[in-house]
Amino acid sequence: MNEKLTLTELQLIIKDSLYMALPDMYWVIAEISEIKENYSGHCYLELVEKHHDEVSIRARVKAVIWSNRFRFLKSFFENTTGESLRVGIKILVRAKIEYHEIYGLSLVITDIDPAFTLGELAIKRQQILKRLEDEGVLNMNKELDFPVVPQRIAIISSKNAAGYTDFMNHLTGNSFGYVFYTALIETPMQGSETEAGIIWAFDRIASHIDKFDAVAIIRGGGSQTDLSWFDNYNIAFYITQFPLPVITGIGHEKDLSVADIVAHQALKTPTAVADYFIECMNKAENHLIELSSEIMNRSEIILEENKQRIDNFKVKLIPVARIMLSEIKEQLSGSIIDLINIGKDYILKAGLVPANQKSRLSSASRSLLSMKDSQLKLNKQKLIAFPGAYLNRLSIKLSGLENSLNILDPENVLKRGYTITSLAGRIIRLCSELRNNDLIKTRFSDGAVSSRVVEKQKGEK
Questions:
Q1: Which residues of the chain have pLDDT under 50?
Q2: pTM of the full predicted structure?
C-alpha cells in the first residue's frame, strides 16, 4: 500500500479500528498509581497492573472520570467502603476505551464496584498477617513483660489530634494523683506519609530507649479510611521488633488493624489507653500497700516470738540455777567433812600434837573454810545474777532491734529534719540528677512543697 497518510489520518484510522473492534463496556481490575481532580471536577487517573513482586509494572493506562459522574461515584465509593479513591488501592471499574488524536489511548470510567475493593483490603490484611506469622514475629511484642510501674510513656501521635488531647487530659487528671512522664513524637497519622512518619518515630524512641517504659500509638476516631493506613506490613513489623510494649488506641470500635493485632495491647480509644496506664499504676500501689502491711505484721510476729522465747528461757533458767546451787553446797559440805576426817586421822597418827601445831591447823582450817564459804557465796551470787544478766542482754538486743526499726521508719526520718525530694514521682538522690528549671517536690514530716531549681551548687565530698 503506497498511499501516504497524514498523522491525523492515521490516528483516525486507529481510533475507528479500536471503536469497531472494542465497542462495548469492560470491567477492568487495576491499581491506582496516580489520581488528580482538576478545578472543573474531572478526575484523571493512571491505572497499572503489577507483577507478583508488587514492584515492577506489567501494564499502564490513563483513565478519566468526568465530573458529572465522578461526584456520584466518589460519594458512593466512600460511603460503601469507608475508603477514598487514593494511590495504592485496587479497584474494579466499568470503562469504555477511548482514543484521542492528541492524548492517545485512555479509559473513560462510568462505574466502580466498591465490593471488590473491600475484598482486596481484607485479602491484603490477611496476607500481611500470614507473612508476619510465617516469619515467626506475629506475637513478639505481646510476649514482652509489661512494666509494673509504666510511668514513662512515649506517644506517637499528632499534637492536633483530638484523641491525643483526650488522652493527655485523662492521664494527667487522674483521680489518684499519679504523675506520668510523657514525650510526644509527632507524626502524620493518616495519608501517604503515615508509614514513613511512624517508622521514623519508632527509630527516634529507640535512640532513647532507656528513658521510656512503654509506647502508645494514639489516633482517635475516624473512618475506615484512617484505619487502612495501619494495615501496613512495615509498621506492623516495626511493632513486633520493638523492645518496649506498644499500646494502640487508634479509635475504631468495630475493626482491628494489623497494627492493633501485633501490638502488646489494643484498646478502642485514647482514653481507654490512659485508663490502662492508670490501672497499672493503681495495681502497683495496692501491691506496695499489701507488702508494707505484710512487713508490719511479720515484724510484730517476730517481736512477739522473741518476747515469748525470753520468757521461756527465764522460766527454765531459775530451776536450773537452784539445782546447780544445791549441788555445789553438797560438794562443799562433803569436802569439809572429808577435811575434818583427814585432820582427825592425822592427829591420831601423829600422836600428841603440839599446841602450836593444833592452833595453826585450826587457824588454817578456819581460813580454808572461810575461803570456801566466800567462794561459795561468790558462786551463789554469780548463779543468781546469771539468769538476770542473760535476760537483760536479750532484752537489750531486742530493744536495739526495735529501735532500729523505729529509726528506719520513713516518718521518723522526716521528723528528724530530713526531707525527700522527687522529680516527676522519681526520688532524687544526687544533685547531678537535676537540671535548672526542673519542678521538684520536697516532702517534710508535716506536708510537702513544690519548688523550681534556679541554681545548682556542687558540694564538697
A1: none
A2: 0.49
